[in-house]
Amino acid sequence: MTEEKDIKLTIEAGEQTEPATIETTENQEVIEESPSLKEVILEQAIEDEAPLSKTFTLRKILGGDILTTQAVRRQVWLLLLITLFVIIYISNRYSCQQDLITIDKLQKELKDAKYKALSSSSQLTEKTRESKVLEILQNNKDSVLKIPNQPPYVIRLEGE
User: Fold this and answer.
1) Of 136 and 19, the one with more pLDDT
2) Contact at 8 Å (CB) between 1 and 26?
3) The whole model's pTM is what?
């Protein structure tokens, strides 16, 4: 039984790698190992992250090359801080708008109250005029008051 057996194994991790061959014989074993899965993933992660170039062109900016994972990781705290400030700005603006709406509503109510007070005051002044009071009393026949023909007498006291 001196037959040689060839066994070929292929490990795939995203892209094809060279097959690992294990040749066995009765007396001799030759083993070639392929890289482990961890090594393949680490190698792919490093290949995907190209170093940032010093020149930025419009094509790189519009193509999204400016947002590489390395650049985003370096600036993640800055992005979070900017996001926090934007949220605070929006909430502050919203509260100011709500306050302005409340102020406008209260100003309209104040204007309506002023007009109502002015109207009530003019109606009261009209109803309490002497001629109007006498007219109402004559219509009701409750009083014998009349408009005087002579001016009123002024009585003076000696003490004053």
Assistant:
1) 136
2) yes
3) 0.45
Instruction: Report the C-alpha gap between 48 and 56 in whole angstroms.
Output: 19
CB proximity list for 14: less than 8 A, separation 6 or greater:
40, 41, 44
Amino acid type, 64: G
Strands (E), the chain: 5-9, 12-13, 15-16, 20-24, 29-31
* Alpha-carbon span 8 to 20, nearest angstrom: 6
- Report how far residue 71's alpha carbon sits from residue 52's, in angstroms, rounded to the nearest whole number: 8
DSSP 150: S
Joined tokens for residue 147: 């408009």
Q: What does residue 24 show for φ and ψ, rounded to 5 degrees? A: -120, 140
Contact between 130 and 148 (Cβ < 8 Å)? no
Model confidence pLDDT, tens digit, residues 15-37: 444 444 444 554 444 455 677 88
